Amino acid sequence: MGFETIIGMEIHVELETKSKIFCSCPTTFGAAPNAHTCPVCLGLPGTLPVLNEEVVNLAIKAGLALNCGINYYNKMDRKNYFYPDLPKAYQISQYDLPICSGGIVEIEVEGVKKEIRINRIHIEEDAGKLVHMEDEPHSLIDYNRVGVPLIEIVSEADLRSPLEAVEYVKVLKSILEYAGISDCRMEQGSLRCDANISIRKVGQETLNNKVEIKNMNSFKELIKAMEKEEKRQRELYTFGEGHKVIQETRRWDSGKGRTVSMRTKEDAHDYRYFPEPDLTPIVISSGLVQSIKEQLPELPPAKKIRFTEEYHLTDKEVDILVGDKSLGEFYEGTVKLGAEPKMAANWILGDLLRLLKEKELGFDAIPVKEEALVKLLKLIESGKISGKIAKEVFEEMFITGNEPEAIVKEKGLGQISGEDVIEKIIIDILQANPQSVEDFKNGKLQAVGYLMGQVMKATKGQANPQMAKEMLEAKLKE
Fold first, then answer.
1. pTM (global) more than 0.90
2. 87-113 mean pLDDT
3. For 171-181, how does the pLDDT look when each residue is reduced to its tens digit (9 = 90+)?
4. What are the b/e assignments for 213-225, b being 16+ CB within 10 Å?
5. In whole angstroms, what is the distance from residue 103 CA to residue 207 CA?
6. Which domains does the chain have, with CATH numbers?
């Protein structure tokens, strides 16, 4: 009998607020260590937290975007545990009355659509960051992140493969970005994933011990970690050593390519939750929820339908363009400025994505402006440059940021459309390739392609392709 994998995800998302959850310290990334701290977020004696109203608004917005129910009465709780990056020795979170409950996220993997249930979304404060020094007997602590507002999105154990889990996180990330809830920059820790994985025999009703893999912040490492842990557990159960799969927390060691045990996993009662005495319960009005609902922008599922119907793109093209907010906005901005939708999609999904990958840039750092890309596409459509030359011009635009017309003029890349010039080049090509001419006359039509290639080579790709082909075929038929 085979095994099946059971995965539930816990996603920690930094909310896009200017200040922390209980104090006025800024949340900006990249400050000097411990620069964004105060007595409140450091938990010094005598300080009191004051809840940031925008945190509640963004949590409600996240719940609505993810089809959750909003709990109009909820509260904050103390989650007690000691760790060096938690200066108060407790975290203010939510336990039995979270701000959002239920919810659905639809994913599609290998052509199969599936609904993943969300158990809850709750508000909490972030902990600090430990910096482990190589070859040093100590670690350093940066408390800047302490008190940064988070929502934790907890899924049901509905995922059945690492591939499904990664797709779920991608869809979630896209929705949160579009809704303006978080920038979701995984490389900066704005979105971090914990995966709970267990294995059981197919048909078994009960769940076996689960292992939590902590704090993965890239899709590449997320799938690697889950696949390795899945393999480890399957092997243990296969060889009768299932008792070695214990409820624990493991971390992903990318250097060694395996998960490593950190500590045994606590149960809820180990944290000794109790209502936060320094904060009153959160009471939400139906009017506030309605107001936030009306402010929700167009979200990815609706945008995918519109892109397909309005721009006549394929499902694959739509998935890539809509999958990232910055890329989707760049594409739509280009089309609204006059670019032909299919042509714009081809350039963005082809040359633009290739150059971004080569230069290791994110979609939010596209160096080409929408207006400049539209001008380039107009140059192609008007016949002033060929598609081949356009690729060269686009690469120069990407590197320098210069306008396409200026690049064409500076490098002398304008298309050759003069009949006399093209005719002379064609005559020279035909005289230099008598065998190809003979092949054409003997019915080998592919000879035209070879000769056309020689014409374009001789003109460095600057000959008007349509004109050159028509003139070449006319000369061959003489």
1. no
2. 94
3. 999 999 999 99
4. bbebbeeeebbbb
5. 22
6. 3-289 (no CATH), 298-411 (no CATH), 419-477 (1.10.10.410)
